[in-house]
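Render this sequence as a predicted structure.
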Amino acid sequence: MREAGDQPERAPTPGIDFTEEDILEAMRAIPGYLDITPGDFKEVYRLAFQHALERLSRAVTAAEIMTTEVVAVKPDTPVAEVAAAMGRRGVSGVPVVDGENKVVGVISEKDFLTRMGVKDAKNFMSLVAGCLVTKGCVALPIKAALAGDLMSAPAVTVAPDTPLRDIAALLTQKSINRVAVTDPDGRLLGLVSRGDIVKATMGRVAS
């Protein structure tokens, strides 16, 4: 019982669709005799919530969360056009596809920075720092380069039925922010970014 003057406890996150299996898994995870008290209920809820998220991460696939309107470039696209396209769409990387729309690589901000000779190339401010300590623009050496010259290859790709959990683990393992979704022949179907994963997870929990 909550005494007068006590702060109300924070309500659990609403909207997640618990299954009987979620509750049973949570109850199995609590050792010994289960005496239902407020503390026990909170623990059951916490474990059930974790189990539900785990279930969702296995059930949701790349095909369900991928962005299908993807900006892609060809290996012979000038890097100036690649940079302009990335700037217009506000993205930090794009897949590189061949004439059959098969993914052959990916080009990101990091690829630009690395090829421009910016040490510890991590972000835009690294570029600014490089410009401030050199004469002229550090981008001049790659002015005539093509996407194929800068891209990272082979590209990291996943199949449409790849679970969200596996995609998240892959992004972390490879230290990348996006992954191309391809058909069995390697043709581009869409793109899954870290942002897509966050939106998908939060949307399903809060809906």
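Summary. Residues 20-59 form one domain. The longest strand covers residues 103-108.
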